[in-house]
Design a protein that fits this description.
Radius of gyration: 20 Å
Largest sheet: 8 strands, parallel
Low-confidence stretches: none
CATH topology: TIM Barrel
Number of domains: 1
Structural class: alpha/beta
Strand order of the largest sheet: 4-11-10-9-8-7-6-5
CATH architecture: Alpha-Beta Barrel
Strand content: 5-15%
Mean pLDDT: 93
CATH superfamily: Aldolase class I
CATH class: Alpha Beta
Shape: globular
Length: about 375
């Protein structure tokens, strides 16, 4: 058992993270877009699904292990790509990766990280790589090749941000990108000395403010400066032909992240994807989007087991994982839940988040009269 940190659920870790982070960093982690109706919709969709338990089925040996791409994992869960981990904790990506490795679940490196893919991969464990495409596509292809050469098992191409999302709160709190000091955020940072010394202070001792990583040296830019020509993320011109070029280039498992429509899921099968992620980007892209868990059943029916189905957005409990599996997902990705742990306590906080989720999965399975992941099905649910 890991250190409890006085935290007995993800919400406890969330509160601990909130107390440690400046407002602007916290809001980047926690908030959505525009009126933030999508975040409430994600949770409401999970909450509207209830269980129909069975009894007297002997649940003294519950097994949460699952096969992900044919390889065993401790549970049907992986850590999602989160680009701002290095602002939550000094070199946060490595803390996420190490905790995931020790928990025997995969970790997904973000191409928007402030650490180079090589430095994160050195943390060990089972690692995947997520890609946002830059304006200069050759830069994107180069980092894909680097991830492949390192041995990343899968490439995730994020599709649900064709244009920049409308995160209005960044204008109010003064923590937008490129980041600049102003009277609002400077005061806020000074009021959070643990974060200021433990994150920014350590970066300054290491050589300076974090930079957008995974770019050639002459194009890297700190979070305090705007991107140079060619190094802006740009996906408004991405289409199925562009994704097919990446599929042909990548030799490992190929995953399309951000699928919500059954026809797009079928198209993913046709173009050779190994998996899709049913996702509305944690309600951080289109505020009016359907909840991922609501989109899942129709997508699962449409692809009929022809590829691996993952789900993210709104997952806060092990019960959410069980609900997603019952409705057709093979595994879930967690992003905010593990970032709460990271922001609260670094690697031990991430480990605690994963431990809590696994314990909750096992407990819910036992309550339902189930002892193995492959026993979870729609008959365990009632949807209102």
């Amino acid at each position: 058992m890991t250190e409890t940190l006085g935290c007995w659920n993800i919400e406890d870790l969330r509160r601990k993270a909130r107390s440690r982070l400046p407002l602007g960093v916290w809001e980047y982690l926690e908030r959505g877009v525009e009126d933030e109706l999508g975040m409430a919709r994600n949770r409401r969709a999970f909450d509207d699904i209830t269980f129909v338990p069975r009894v007297l089925r002997r649940v003294d040996n519950v097994d949460t292990t699952s096969a992900i791409f044919g390889t065993p994992a401790a549970m049907p869960l992986a850590v999602a790509p989160t680009g701002a981990a290095g602002i939550m904790w000094h070199k946060g990506d490595t803390h996420l990766a190490k905790a995931a490795a020790k928990a025997c679940v995969p970790f997904t490196i973000s191409s928007a990280s402030t650490m180079d893919v090589e430095d994160i991969y050195a943390a060990g464990g089972r690692q995947w790589f997520q890609l946002y495409l830059w304006e200069n596509r050759e830069l994107s292809h180069a980092v894909v090749d680097r991830a492949q050469d390192l041995g990343c098992e899968a490439l995730f191409v994020t599709l649900d941000l064709p244009v920049a999302p409308n995160r209005e709160y960044l204008y109010h709190n003064g923590f937008g990108m490129p980041f600049g000091l102003n009277r609002h955020n400077l005061t806020d940072m000074l009021m959070h000395p643990r974060w200021l010394a433990g994150v920014i202070g350590r970066y300054m001792l290491d050589g300076g403010i974090p930079a957008q990583a995974n770019l050639p040296g002459n194009l890297k830019h700190s979070v305090a400066r705007g991107a140079k020509p060619g190094a802006l993320f740009k996906q408004d011109d991405l289409d199925w032909d562009g994704v097919k070029l990446l599929r042909d280039r990548w030799q490992g498992k190929f995953v399309l992240k951000g699928i919500l429509h059954p026809e797009d899921a079928v198209r993913a099968v046709e173009m050779g994807a190994d998996a899709i992620v049913v996702s509305n980007h944690g309600a951080r892209s289109l505020d009016g989007s359907i909840a991922s868990i609501d989109a899942l059943p129709a997508i699962a029916d449409a692809v009929s087991g022809k590829l691996t189905i993952m789900l993210d957005s709104g997952v806060r409990r092990g019960s959410d994982v069980v609900k997603a599996i019952a409705l057709g997902a093979d595994l879930v990705l967690v992003g905010r839940a593990t970032l709460y742990g990271l922001a609260a306590a670094g690697e031990p906080g991430v480990a605690r988040a994963l431990e809590l989720l696994q314990a909750e999965i096992a407990r819910v399975m036992a309550m339902l009269g189930l002892t193995a992941i492959d026993q979870i099905g729609p008959e365990a649910l009632r949807q209102s």
